[in-house]
TrEMBL record:
Taxonomy of the source species: Bacteria, Pseudomonadati, Pseudomonadota, Alphaproteobacteria, Rhodobacterales
Keyword Repeat: no
Keyword Hydrolase assigned: yes
Annotated InterPro entries: Cyclic-di-GMP_PDE-like, EAL_dom, EAL_sf
Every EAL domain range: 26-276
This protein's name: Cyclic di-GMP phosphodiesterase YfgF
Entry-linked SUPFAM superfamilies: EAL domain-like (SSF141868)
EC number assigned by the record: 3.1.4.52
The encoding gene: yfgF
Keywords, in A-Z order: Hydrolase
Annotated GO MF terms: cyclic-guanylate-specific phosphodiesterase activity
């Protein structure tokens, strides 16, 4: 095939077929998410976080955002969040997640719940108005709310995040640093952030009972968290051996499929059939 034929089916402005395919996929994902937002087809799936040494009763739950596509299929965040993270649609998703989570806390006075957020939402009026408005209505609800921020998101505007955290911690809200170890957090900023919880990224946790490398890395991350008086949570715990190892080395809490998959029908909705969502 000649040079002209090689590029014949690629629209102008796209230098390779791969780039065009990626952009087309992202556009399709964005349209799917925006349609779900427009029709309020958004929900939370809840996953338990358990104490490592006494896992029978969850310490708290994490509410993970899900959307419904046009066929009614439940779509987990990993399939769309990177595409929408830096967009207006991403801010709308954060707002809906917050609204759903705060509604759940209102209905369940004994529940403690973690919700994911982007640092970009700190400057988004609807998100901030929702958060402060609900806390004004129910001041004690802040003591049951945990906001999770990923390393990569926190480092976008670290000074803004630290001020936001100080203000909300005064109202009882706790903060968790999600995916700890996955990015390139400056330890100077880690010291200044004063996170209450660090969640050690799952890449260091899966198979840890049989991986000397993961054991060393997790030990180092745990030591850093301990130095700053932060509770440690191990993500992606999938086997009994890994759970036993993590409890033995002093990790505080565990989260993963071994203890429960995210579900849109949590235990406090026991009258509904369970539906686990990846």
């Amino acid at each position: 095939m000649g040079q002209d034929g090689k590029w014949a089916d690629i629209p102008a402005g796209h230098d390779t077929a791969l780039n065009y395919a990626v952009m087309s996929r992202d556009r399709s994902v964005m349209e799917m998410v925006q349609q779900a937002v427009d029709h309020n087809q958004v929900m939370l799936a809840y996953q338990p976080v358990v104490p490592a040494r006494s896992p029978a009763v969850p310490a708290y739950y994490e509410g993970l955002i899900r959307i419904l596509d046009e066929t009614g299929r439940i779509i987990p965040a990993r399939e769309f969040i990177e595409v929408v993270e830096a967009t207006e649609t991403g801010r709308q998703i954060d707002c809906l997640a917050l609204e759903n989570g705060l509604d759940t806390l209102m209905r369940q006075p004994d529940l403690r719940l973690a919700l994911n957020m982007s640092a970009r939402s700190i400057g988004y009026p609807r998100w901030m108005e929702t958060l402060h408005g609900r806390l004004d209505e129910q001041p004690t609800m802040g003591e049951r709310l945990i906001l999770e921020i990923t390393e990569s998101s926190a480092m976008i505007v670290p000074e803004l995040v630290t001020g936001f955290m100080r203000d909300l911690q005064c109202r009882g809200v706790s903060f968790a640093l999600d995916d700890f170890g996955a990015g390139f957090t400056s330890f100077r900023y880690l010291r200044d952030f004063y996170f209450d919880i660090v969640k050690i990224d799952g890449q260091f946790i899966r198979g840890i009972a049989d991986s000397a490398d993961n054991q060393v890395l997790t030990s180092a991350l745990s030591a850093i968290a301990t130095q700053f008086d932060m509770l440690t949570v191990a993500e992606s715990v999938e086997t009994a051996r890994d759970a036993e190892y993590l409890a033995a080395v002093g990790i505080n809490c565990l989260q993963g499929y071994f203890f429960g998959a995210p579900t849109v029908n949590p235990p406090w909705q026991s009258d509904a059939p369970d539906q686990a969502i990846g």
